[in-house]
Amino acid sequence: MGGYGDVQLLRDDGLRLDGRKIDEMRPVAIEAGVLPAADGSAMVTHGLNVAVAAVYGPMEAHPRKIQRQDRAVIDVRYNMAPFSTSDRIRPGYNRRSREISKVTAEALESVVLVERYPRSKIRVEIEILAAEAGTRCVGITAAAVALADAGIPMRDLIVGVASGKVEDTVVLDLDKAEDNYGQADLPVGILPNTGEIAFLQMDGDLSPDEFNLAMEYNFKAAAEIHEIMVDALKRRYEGGEN
Amino acid sequence: MVELVPTLLRQELARLAEDDLRLDGRGRWEGREVTLETDCLYNAEGSAKVVMGDTIVYAGVKFELRTPWPDRPAQGSLMCGAELRPVAHRKYEPGPPSPQSIELGRVVDRGIRESGCIDMESLCIVPGEKVWGVMIDIHVLSDGGNIFDACGLAAIAALRTAVVPAKRFDVGEDYTLKVNGTPIMSSFTRVGGRYIYDPSEEEELGGDERIHITLGDEGHLHSLQKGLRGVFTPAEFAEIFEVAHLRCTELRKLVANQEGN
Q1: ipTM score here?
Q2: pTM of the model
Q3: Whole-angstrom Cα distance, residue B91 to residue B142?
Q4: I want to staple A187 with a disulfide (CB 3.0 to 4.6 A). Which of A121, A162, A209, B168 is the partner?
Q5: pLDDT at B2 (0 to 100)
Q6: Burial class of A202 by CB neighbour count within 10 A (0 to 12, 13 to 18, 19+)
Q7: What is the mean pLDDT of chain B?
């Protein structure tokens, strides 16, 4: 975490700088099937974050060495557009995006019924067009909707959410200032129907009680986002188009 | 990924061409509907989204403070790059920039740069020390054919809405970037033996060489590019040049309408 002390993140009335309550998440909007060239796709707007995910496949797994005889592999690329942040990002893969891609792939492999597609590959491309803290979570949510949109069988959807700590207070869904100057960040990927967790990272400082409260907030938010995801998928197929 | 040569598609396109028809029912010089949205990305100083049939492209403008090139101490710089991310089509693979994406970025860059719409000297803050570097990044999200025109349109529309973030860099107050003109690209592909405007994905797959023409406000040429294997005659060029004039003017109006003037 970026450090703590000189930046006030909670107002005197107990609300956060953007006026949200402690356990209130930023507004979320989801649209499925946004990219005509992809087999499945989704766009998720979460606060000022914009993430687009595309799914291609299942397809032949190559290079050969990545093939698994008993299941499909999920090949995830998380990428931030050069114009997605305040300072321009040089195009290309970096250590941060490699790590996020890897753990996201492992999370998605935990929900997709990969054993249905031995020796094949499912490509998941996550593009962050605008970043305002929490992009890995928004990317996971977008990937889950895109996988469902592609008709790939899954045990459950997966929802990316994060809670954290600012000024010794646990808060849901950190915004940019809270992420930069807060004390902890706990992003998770939750399976809304089974209540399992497929993605987990954390940095900062949390007591066991704070961790439990942060998780409670995450589950609450996951249920809310899940409804929006399901609604997006229903809208995609109710219209009769495609 | 190896693109299988679609013999049947080529035959079908050639058959349609005999009656001057196209796969999607368009006329030979008819473009797909284009929608343009600007100022659509938080964190980009200027941005645009272009939807052209199944093609979706975003462009974002960022600014950097940098030291000027020694031979041009009083000039800022402009750079335009395009990324053909694997998100855009199954045919695109991850890896270092492909020759296609480099060509795409450079053709768009030339059209904007050579039109002179950005006065490089106006990007100078302290001669010899500090100038603005303007970066236009183009992100192709869905390749449904003719990404060149979509990228060119997104780039100039994003540039025309850009606000120079002077305050954030401690060099004065923010101001709107001055852009003198709207260079627009029109692209043509040989399909079934004759040129058509605004090729779709199938027409590119089953077509041959392509020609890109960028025209400025006065109808002057600012960038030309021929891509892929094939040859054309001066008469053919004269014909598509006429069409390019008409289509560029229409798209320029679209940009102006978006800006509300």
Answers
A1: 0.75
A2: 0.85
A3: 11
A4: A162
A5: 47
A6: middle
A7: 93
Q: Is the CA virtual torsion B41, A145, A101, B97 positive or negative?
A: negative
- Token pair for A227: 């409804």
Residue-level pLDDT at A240: 53
- Fold entry, domain A28-238: Ribosomal Protein S5; domain 2 (3.30.230)
Q: What angle do CA B34, B37, A91 make, to 5 degrees?
A: 100
> If residue A226 lies in a helix (H) or strand (E), which one and from where to where?
helix A208-238
Q: Is the pLDDT of residue B1 over 50?
A: no
Is B64 part of the contact surface with chain A (CB cutoff 8 Å)?
yes
- Per-residue 3-state assignment (H helix, E strand, C coil) for B225-247: EEECCCCCCHHHHHHHHHHHHHH
Q: Are B115 and B132 in contact (CB under 8 A)?
A: no
Question: Which residue in A has a C-alpha nearest to residue B80's C-alpha?
Answer: A82
User: Is residue A138 exposed (0-12), middle (13-18) or buried (19+ Cβ within 10 Å)?
Assistant: buried
Length of chain A equals: 242
The residue extents of the domains of chain A are 28-238
Q: Do A36 and B47 touch (CB under 8 A)?
A: no
**Which tokens is B36 given?**
């343009």
Between CA A95 and CA B4 the distance in angstroms is: 35
Domains defined along chain B, listed by start: 7-258 (3.30.230.70)
Q: Which helix (H) or strand (E) holds B106?
A: helix B99-114
- Residue pair A137/A160 in contact (Cβ under 8 Å)? The answer is yes
Mean pLDDT calculated for residue range A56-80: 92
Q: Is the peptide bond before A192 cis (omega within 30 degrees of 0)?
A: no
Average pLDDT over residues B120-137: 95
Both tokens of A59, joined, read 């397809």
- CB contacts, 8 Å: A130 with chain B: 41-44
What is the C-alpha to C-alpha distance for residues B186 and B32, in angstroms, rounded to an integer? 12
Q: Which residue has the tokens 């935990």?
A: A110
- Residue A146 — φ and ψ, nearest 5°? -65, -40
- Which of the residues A26, A46, A77, A83 would you substitute to probe the B interface, choosing the one with the greatest number of B C-beta atoms within 10 Å? A83
Nearest to B137 among A52, A53, A83 (CB): A83
**pLDDT at residue B13 is higher than 50:** yes
Take residue B234 and report the two structure tokens written for it: 């001066």
- B85 CB within 8 Å of a chain A CB: yes
